[in-house]
Amino acid sequence: MERYNHEKVEKKWQQIWEDTNAFKAEDNFDKPKFYGLVEFPYPSGVGLHVGHVRAYTSLEVIARKRRMQGYNVLFPIGFDAYGLPTENYAIKTGQHPRKVTDRNIEVFTQQLKSIGYSFDWDRVIDTTDPDYFKWTQWIFLQMYKHGLAYKDHTYVNFCTHCKVVLSNEDFRDGKCDRCGSDVIQMEKDVWFLKIRDYAEKLLKGLDDVDYLPRIKTEQKNWIGKSIGAEIDFKIKDHEEKLKVFTTRADTLFGVTFMVIAPEHPIIEKLSSEILNMDEILDYKKEAQHKTEFERVQLVKDKTGVKINGITAINPVSGKEIPIFVADYVMMGYGTGAIMAVPAHDTRDWDFAKKFDLPIIEVISGGNVQEEAFTDVSSGTLVNSDFLNGLEVKEAIPTMIQYLEEHHIGKKTINYKMKNWAFNRQRYWGEPIPIVYCEHCGTVPVPEKDLPVELPKVTHYEPTDTGESPLADIPEWVNTTCPVCGGPAKRETDTMPQWAGSSWYFLRYTDPHNTEALADMDKMKYWLPVDWYNGGMEHVTRHLLYSRFWHQFLYDIGAVPTKEPYKKRTAQGLILGSDGEKMSKSKGNVVNPNDIINEYGADALRTYIMFIGDYEKPAPWSENGLKGCNRFLERVWRLQDSVIDKNVYSDALEGDMHKTIKKVSEDYEAMKYNTAIAALMSLLNRFTEVGTVTKAEFGDFLKLLYPVAPHMTEELWEIIGQPGMLHQASWPTFDEEKTIDNIIEMAVQINGKVRGKIQIAIDADQETAHNMALQNDNINKFIQNKQIVKEIYRPGKIYNIVVK
Length: 803
Ligand code: ANZ
Ligand code: ZN
Hints:
The chain is α/β, with parallel strands linked by helices. It is built from 26 helices and 32 strands. The strands form 9 sheets. Strands 11, 12, 13, 14, 15, 16 and 17 form a 7-stranded mixed beta sheet that branches. Strands 2-1-23-24-10 form a 5-stranded parallel beta sheet. Strands 6-5-9-18 form a 4-stranded antiparallel beta sheet. α1 crosses α23, α18 (about 600-610) crosses α19 and α20 packs parallel to α22 (about 695-705). It catalyses: tRNA(Leu) + L-leucine + ATP = L-leucyl-tRNA(Leu) + AMP + diphosphate.
C-alpha cells in the first residue's frame, strides 16, 4: 500500500472531474432537479477565508449527495465584484479596478478549485461583466417605469471617511460598516427604491418559505411593522396642522407637549411666526453631526429647544400645549412629529423632567412622578373622559374610532424599514441608466442602449462634495437625449453594492443569455432555489433586497415564482484558536491555502464540517484538524483489510444500516459533525472485526465521499469498484435492520410479570416458549400446570395463562 499522497490524489481527481464535466448542471427538464445556492464571494485582495469554506462545504456535501440520489444538480458560484475595497485598493496602488478585480477573481477561482468544490464552472458569473450588469440596469429601468425608483431630496447618511452616502443597512451604531468612521446626516438628491411598497408582501411571503426561525424573526424585526394612528394637532391661530404617528392613541388625554424632529418642514413654513429661529437652526446644525444611533438610543440626558411663538391644541381635551424641537424624534419615521406622553413613555418622561413639563397619569397602576409607567397589560384608563375605566387594549380602538368619526385622525400602519437609498457616489459600480435633458427632464436610457458602461479612465478618486468621480468626466457625462436628441447629462451616481447580488441566482439558470436576464423555461425548471445557505449578517439586507427584486419581477411577469428561495439556513462563524473573531490585527487568521498544502483539501473539509454545531460559532483548533487528518489516514490504510465479497457480513450488517441511516439524515439536518462522528465509529467497528467486505467499505466510502471526495474516489478505484464514485448511487438502508434486534421481553403468567427473556424482536412463539421454559423463575410458575392460553406479541409481550 502506498502512503497517502494528498497532493497527487487531489490534483488527479480535480483534473478528472474537470475533464469529464462531472458537475455540469444539465438543462434536462425531465430529471428531478436540485438547486443549491451559496452566497457568492466578494473577491477581495486577501483571498478565501476559512469562513467561506464552512459556508460552502455544507451545501457542497448536499450537492454531491443529491447527484448520487439521481438529481440534476445546479450548484453554481460567481463573484460579487463591485465594491469599495477594490476601488480603494485601486486608488492606493494606481491600478485600475478592472485589473484588480480580474486578478482577485483568478486567485479565488484557483483556491475554490483546490478545495475540490463541485461547482458548475461553466456558469460562473461576475457582477461587473457588462453582459451581466446590463440586466441589473434593465431591472432598475423596469422599477423606474413602474414607479418604484425615484429621486428625492432628503437627508442621507454620509460617511466622513469613505465620502459616500450610505444606506441605513450600511452602518451600525453610527459607524460605517466599511471603515468604522462616524456617519453624519447630509442633505442630498439621491435615488431610492420603494421597498416599503413591498413591506406587506415581504412579511406575508415568509409564511410560504422554510427559513430558520431566527432568520424569519430578523426579517420581521427589520421590516418593523407597527400598527397605530395618525392624529392631527392644530397649531393655535393657524391653518397649519401637525400630524403625529402614535401606537398609543389611548394616551391622548395625557399629552402635555409635542416634539418635532429638527428637520421637520413646519419649522421652515412657520419661520415668520417663530421667535427663536436662530436657536432652532443652531440646534438643527448640531443634530446633523449626530448619528441616528446617538439620537435614538436611550440616553437619559435629552436635548431640545422649545419653539417660541407657536403652540398646539390637544384635539380631545382642547388644551394648549408647547412644541419642542428635539433630536430624539427622527424625521425618517412616522411623520417626524410626536405627541409626548411623559407619564407613559420613558423618553418623553426624561424630556419632561429636564424641561419641567407636566406629567399627567392616564393609565393607573404606576407612580408616574417617579418613572414612566409603560406596562400595557395592566391598569385602566384614568383622567381620560370617555375612555375612563377601559383597559389599554380596548381604549386604543375606542379612541381611534372616535378620531375617525371626528376627522381628527385615522388608523395607520408604519414600517421601520425605510426605502432603499439606491446609490453610491463612487466609480466602481453599475451606472444608473438615466439621463437628464433640459427639455425632457429625467429620461431612462432605452433598453437597446444597455449596458451603460463605465468610462475607461485613470482617475476615480471620490470628490469632497459627495459627488461621484464620474461627475468629473465630461466626455462621459455629456450625452444626447434619447427622446429629443438634444444635449443631456448622464446620472453620475452608481448603484450600491447590493444591486448585483439581488438577482444573481436567476442568472445562474441561464448565464449566457443575451436576450433576457434568463430564459423563462429554464427558470421554470430551476426555480425556486431549493436551498440557500449563507451568513446571518446577510439575512436582513441582502435577503430582503433580493426577495424584493424577485417579488417585483414576479409581479411584472419576468420570473415564474413568487419567492426566490424555498429554504434558507445559516452557518456559524469560525473563530480564531483564541476564541476571538478572526482578524488580521489579532493575528489569528487561518489561511485555507496553508491547510491544503500541509494536510490536503479533504482534511480541511472534514475538519471544517466536524468542528462543531454548524449553526454555532466554533474556534479553530489545530489538534482537531490533526485528529480529522488521522481519521482519513486510517480510512486509507483500511484498503488492505478489504475482502472481495459483495455483501455485508453478519457481524457488520446492523452497523452498516444504522450508519447509513444516521449519516443520511444528519447531512440533511446540517448535523455534519455527528455524521462524521458516526463514520468514525463505523471505522472503529471495521477495525474491531478485522476484515471488511467490499460492500461494506464501498458504502462507507459513499457516505464519506461528499465530505472527503478525493480520497474516497481514489479508494473506490483501488478496491476495484465499478465506475467512479461520484457516479455511484447513494446507499440505502433497511429501517428494520437499523433497530437493535434483540430486546428484553417481559413474560407474564396469569397477568403477573414473572421474569424477562432476551429475544429477537421477530422471533416466533415457539422460540419464546422455549426461552421462557429455560428461565427458572418463569418455569416455576408453569411447572405442573396446564397451559390454557398463550398470547404472544413479537417484540412486545408474552402472556401465558395457566391453571
Ligand atoms: C405616544 C405614545 C405614548 C407613544 C406612549 C409611545 C408610548 P413603534 O412601536 O416603534 O412604532 N414615535 C413616533 N414617531 C417617532 C419618530 N419619528 N421618532 C421617535 N419616536 C417616534 O413606536 C411608535 C411610538 O414611537 C409612537 O407612539 C411615538 O410615541 C414614537 F405611552 O406616541 B408614541
Ligand atoms: Zn430631451
